[in-house]
Description:
This protein has helices at residues 51-54, 56-70, 98-112, 149-161, 172-180, 218-229, 233-242, 254-280, 301-309, 329-346; strands at residues 11-16, 20-29, 32-42, 76-81, 87-93, 120-128, 140-148, 165-171, 187-193, 198-204, 207-214, 288-292, 313-315. By secondary structure, the chain is an alpha/beta fold. It has 3 domains: 11-85 and 149-182 and 320-351, Nucleotidyltransferase, domain 5; 87-146, Dna Ligase, domain 1; 212-313, 2-Layer Sandwich (Nucleotidyltransferase, domain 5). The longest helix is centred in the C-terminal third of the chain and has 27 residues, at 254-280.
Amino acid sequence: MPFITKKNENLVGIDFGSGAIKIVELANRAGTVELITYGLGIKNRVTVKTDAVRNRQTTVEQLVHVMKESRVTTKRVVAALPAVNVFTTVVTMPPMPKKEIDDAIRWEAKKMVPLPLDKMSIDWHPVTTPTTGDGSAEKITIIMTAAPTDVIKGYMDIFRSANLQLVGLETEATALRRSLLPIAHGCHLLLDIGATTSNVTIFDQGLPVVTRNIDIGGEAISRNIANAMNISVERADQFRDDIGLPLTGQSTHPVHQAITFVIDNLILQELSRVLNTYTAGGGQPLDRIIIVGGCSRIKNLSHYIQLHMKITVEAGDPWQSIRAHAELAPELEKIAPQMAVAIGLALKVKYAN
């Protein structure tokens, strides 16, 4: 969907995460982005991310509640489509008229999208236009995105019912790049570990060249801890984050063993497969891995992944380009992993014209 806004108007980014609805309101004050407010509406464990559209009434009620509690000052919002419903690829082609590009994009979409094209909304935009030595265009680089039309309509209905003005729908990858990679140099892998799903995106010079969804998240880890120790899932959540992973890489505690079983056999194996496929296709070496998402708060997780992947790993800082009151710093740091997508969506206000 095209993004239409006016300069210096506030904007709320809304992320229907698998564990919570997260919102962030930002303002553009003469080129400086300021935090106005934020909020988290924790979902019931039986509610998963893809239920946002199917359980529309519940989603609307939760959204209205968190917006009210957070005291947002605008009805203008931008949201992210669930990564599991979005298909994204980077295409390079010779310069050609727009009509021919439209036809070429639909041809590419046929190869990538598993649904009939008449049930999909397809969007594309050029990113770079390299030139030859004489200044003439050589190739154009295009990002193509496709999403089911009924999912897009469902999101539009949610915001209409919540009496909010939806001014844009974006991909989670776009939002994460904006909040975590403001300078689009190098090659980075972003790992977003949510409550029920995890998303892997490789960015090369700011372009999302690889995207992958993993049906594993923090809840699977907590259930494994709960089963191993015969405790409640709620208590397992606390053990997961506080005891976490061993610094040495050796699992000596039952919590260590329960966490490493999921991390090693599901998340790290998938990361290795993604990287092997990417490098085998001529991809550039990674500069670093950046982790976000509610489950990235597991103690020593960055160190553990770095130990096994042999690549620099760090926790993402989505607040890095936002000005906020100093007294909020401890709380903002605590919730930062969960807010990366919502922040990236709201940061669209920085580029309004």
